[in-house]
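Morning!

This is the sequence you dropped in the shared folder:
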Amino acid sequence: LCTLVDSVPTGSQWLHEVKYDGYRALIAVAKGKATVFTRSGLDWTDKFQAIADAVARLPVETALFDGEIVAFKDGRPDFSTLKDAIAS
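The structure's back. Tokens below.
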């Protein structure tokens, strides 16, 4: 499991990545339409319509995107801001 720390370990044997605290999403594109799914398979396109619309405009016929939807506050990922954005 991830552990929050204030600094990254030193040395060349370490790999690390930024922890984006958001919602894992799969976005399926077909026939000019994009659908946003949660990792449990719920259709959340209506909650993330702007993202679905942007992905639908990509120059692809079919595609599957796997990623994290994140909201930022003061330049950092903030889960509360994300929850507030989709609650309205």
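Headline: The beta strands are 23-30, 33-38, 62-69, 72-73, 76-77.

More detail when I'm at my desk.
O.
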